[in-house]
Amino acid sequence: MDWSSFLSSVFVFDDYGELLVLVRNSLWAGAVLGLVGGVVGTFVMMRDLAFAVHGIAELSFAGAAAALLIGADVITGSLVGSVLAALIMGFTGLHAREGNSFVGVLMPFGLGLGILFLSLYEGRSSNKFSLLTGQIVSVSSLQLTSMVVLSVLVLAVLVAVWRPLTFASTDPFVARAKGLPVRGLSILFMVLLGVSVALSVQIVGALLVLALLITPAAAAMNLTSSPGRTVVLSVLFAELAMVGGILLALGGNIPISPYVTTISFALWLVSRVVRAVRERSASYRRAVTATATTTTPRGAVAADGTGAATASSTPAP
């Protein structure tokens, strides 16, 4: 494939206005999922659960594939699989190293089950492919309504437990000493994470759900350490990736997931460069300050931050 053929496959904007009307539900779904993904992703990063998201996504894929095989609702199957995986991880309560090993065992099991169910499915191959890589054109009004209801539920619960969950996520040992139900909050968040993963799989697919729940929050944390600003930037980046990815995918012949992941990665890359520049500038300023302090001669007058002067003189013999 030459360069012109590649561009014609990625960017095809013929009759774009007419197609835009057909994916109105998908745009709303993408906007809702961007909001949920940005907020939930912030807690995922604070609790170091990036690897767990992938494990939940694989079980969500298995549940959706099973529902597709038996003719049930795909969203319901995806939701059952992801919540089941989240509950197993939440109740297990393993330490970081054991938890990563457990997720590593769970991931191939869920992926294997999903592939088994899809191999037994005799329907359209596009339905199989969309579970892995996402889709934008088949979000019905009923599916959109269910996504909105579940998203509102997730956000409402997060708002209700925002302060204790933030405390338990940043310093679980102190939170436990203060009497907070750290284990209960962990299980509750895992359930909310499972619901968010199940919703995200419907748009971006099981394989690339990290681009919605991890990358925007990681990019936001590169730019600020303030929890409030991190959430705002994470939501903004997730919305740009989701809505922008849908709009670009509408004008191409490939699934939505490459567009979403490319936008997410570009945002993270820019944020990482900004962070590196800031760290280099701060390091340079500290070096200059240290050099100026060590080279100030004894007896010289130095001005402090308030403009006052202090003198260091050699005492008289």
TrEMBL record:
Mode of membrane association: Multi-pass membrane protein
Keyword annotations of the record: Membrane, Transmembrane, Transmembrane helix, Transport
Region Disordered, annotated ranges: 298-317
Stated family: Belongs to the ABC-3 integral membrane protein family.
Gene3D superfamilies per UniProt: ABC transporter involved in vitamin B12 uptake, BtuC
Compartments it resides in: Cell membrane; Membrane
Pfam families in the cross-refs: ABC-3 (PF00950)
Protein name, per record: Metal ABC transporter permease
Principal location listed in the UniProt entry: membrane
Membrane-spanning residues: 27-47, 59-89, 101-121, 142-165, 185-218, 230-250, 256-277
